[in-house]
Amino acid sequence: MISTPPLHRRSIALPHVADSNMQLLEAGPSDAPALLFLHGWPESARAWEAVMRLAAGDGYHALAVDLPGIGGSAMRDAPADKLGMATLLREATNGLNLPGLTLVGHDVGGQVAFAWATAFPDDMARVVIMDVAVPGIEPWDDVLRNPHIWHFAFHAILKLPELLVGGKQRPYFDYFYDAISGRPDAIPADRRNAYADAYAGSEALGTGFGWYRAFPEDAKRNAGWVESKRRIGVPLLFLRGEHEGGEMEAYRRGFVDAGFARVEGGIVPGAGHFAPEEAPEAVWKRIAAFIAANP
User: Fold this and answer.
1) Which terminal Cβ of the chain has fewer Cβ within 10 Å, N or C?
2) Which residues have C-beta within 8 Å of that of residue 134, sequence separation ≥ 6?
3) CA atoms of 171 and 225, how far apart (whole Å)
4) What is the domain range of residue 19?
5) What CATH number is associated with residue 201?
6) Residue 122 domain flag
7) Number of domains forming the structure of the chain
């Protein structure tokens, strides 16, 4: 019988941020090659549990963090712009032993991973971005014009989303789990409840909507990066669920134009937007192959 690697919780206080606490899930040997997983909206570090267990079972040190202001990562006035989030996460993990780091971000976490990789490329050996368009990077404008992405504009409105969604997080989040996943049953009730709890307070709920309100700032910063023509040697893997919309080549070309010298694309069969939960085995297999091909 194959044993399942245990997951442990770990908290990190930030000495330079008042009333702050960053919470991580962790599995696998602490001195092994590391992966740091960043979740998206409306989820928490728990979205990576299945992938983390697979990674730890293969001998890697897997960590996943609740993004600043969400779930166990309690703090006031958490940054919403993706470079600010990346900088804070970098500070929080600076004291950890993360050799040969592979940074993996899904949805908003992928936007944070992009900001981290462009600002601090020496921090990592590889970066994986999943199921997201990056503000200011092709095909961002096409995504904004897509009427099916209506929630970008709604979430960007000040105060109104908090007013309408507050106290109704679970049914509101359920809409997205059911509408844009290929396998809604892959996100069970207990995890849906946990995600609603992670955004239960008005501050946490506002933090999540704040990520959308910061998109114009993110786009301006990222567009400036493209215009700078600087090159990044960090290999990048972009993964999308099979049932996600958009053309893979448009996304790959956007990352190349952003300066990444080595960009690979991959499709996760049978999955929609929430690929790490819908198809964790396929996601991990693709990430593991990427690591092996880019030592």
Assistant:
1) N
2) 110, 111, 114, 140, 218, 222, 254, 258
3) 38
4) 8-293
5) 3.40.50.1820
6) yes
7) 1
